[in-house]
Amino acid sequence: MTRKLLMSAMTGAEVAVRVGVVRRPAGLLKNAVLFSVLLLAGSWFSMAQAEPADTLVIGADLAEIVDQLQATPRLVGRDDSSHFPAAIARLPSVGYLRQLSTEGILSLKPQRVLISDAARPAIVVRQLEAVGLQVNTVARGKSINDIPRKIEQVAAVMGRQAQAAALIAEQQVLATRLAALPPLNGPKALFIFNRTGMTPLVMGRDTEANSALEQAGISNSARFKAYKQVAGESMVALAPDFVIISKAGLEALGGEDNLWKLGGLALTPAGRAKRLVQVDDQALLNLGPRTAAAMLQLRQDAGALFP
User: Are 240 and 221 in contact (CB under 8 A)?
Assistant: First the structure.
């Protein structure tokens, strides 16, 4: 591109100074060339900057994909679940993913909405379409094998197909590496979800956490469905060999010492050996561009506890 701009500028400048019989001084020719280069480069830069900020993204997975595709400047807002990276977190929010309002979304005046099918209530999508907004719904999916498809869909909406190819290739490499690892046979994990001001919950079957464990080749010690508070004899009965908790969740407990004080956990194999793996739960669970790498890291960290 730079070479083409320079050649075009030089041709234009030489024509300008050679009209008629009189030749211009060499210094004038150089100035004319420089001016033409700057003029053409400025026009090209203006076109590159012409993309409007016109899109609202709802869903942490989609927001991270937009950012990886270098399309964050196109965004006018996000939802509360979308707070990585910092450039996304700085955008105005329309509220929680599952408690959206049409009025809140329209207040940011987007021309299009890129939204996860996990967003609620569903009537909001119909209302947005009714007022003429372009609404692009992307299915969340169930595994890391769905991530390339989501990248393709987001790239099509944002006009970033060229950037998508490299990102998809990277995801496929990570998925292949994860699939090549043998399952962690024997040891069972206890996945604890915790945030400031809430009661710690154990993640059971039919949860995003359990899906992540399965894809990483790790067994879940919790056999019940969904999630619930577990303590005392019920905790001892789960007999986990190690604990998984997010860094934020551990901080909310006040540190690792307080983790082992949770009812009955100290009496389990995990508690007696103090075996712990810390994760970034948003990266691990949202099926975005960081998920495959987070699953691979989880499998490696868990394996290191049982050499």
Answer: yes
